[in-house]
Amino acid sequence: MTTSYKTDAEILDQYNTALTNAENQPEIAAAMTEFDYGPEKITEGRQILDATQNAYNFNKQEDDETIDARIYYKARKKALYQTFKRDRKKARIAFRNDVVTLSQLGVIKSIPHSYVSWSIP
């Protein structure tokens, strides 16, 4: 038994082709009628396929928007971190003789960071 690896879009296209052939080819329509798949069932299948295609397209659009939002978020996060590092250096220079203020600002030690990124991958 061979396993067929098809994308969702390829599967939907295959179903669309099968339904189109069943609707337009009289030989296929006659064969389908023998298995109790008359025009009503074919129309019902077309409606289900259309609903499935709409859901697939909506999910694909949502995935694309999520990817775009993640890219935007990462860019903004990186810019914020760069600004934070720059301002932190400015504070260390401005208050280099005032240990109490440096301690209160929390800039005496290096910037803490995790080894594993727990933010959005």
Task: Describe what is shown at a glance.
This protein is mainly α. The protein contains four helices and no strands.
Describe the protein's topology.
Blueprint: H1 8-24, H2 26-34, H3 39-94, H4 99-105
Query: Class by helix and strand content?
Result: mainly alpha
Radius of gyration: 30 Å
* Mean pLDDT metric: 89
Which stretches of 5+ consecutive residues score pLDDT under 50?
none
Number of helices: 4
Our estimate of the beta-strand percent is under 5%
Shape, please?
Answer: rod-shaped
Q: Let me know the number of strands.
A: 0
Order of helices and strands: HHHH
Oligomer: single chain
N-to-C CA distance: 37 Å
Task: Summarize the amount of helix as a percent range.
Answer: over 70%
Describe this structure in words.
The model has no long low-confidence stretch (mean pLDDT 89). The protein is rod-shaped, with a radius of gyration of 30 Å. Helices cover 74% and strands 0% of the residues. The protein has 121 residues and is an all-alpha fold. It has helices spanning 8-24, 26-34, 39-94, 99-105. The chain has 4 helices and no strands. Helix 1 (8-24) crosses helix 2 (26-34) and helix 1 (8-24) runs antiparallel to helix 3 (39-94).
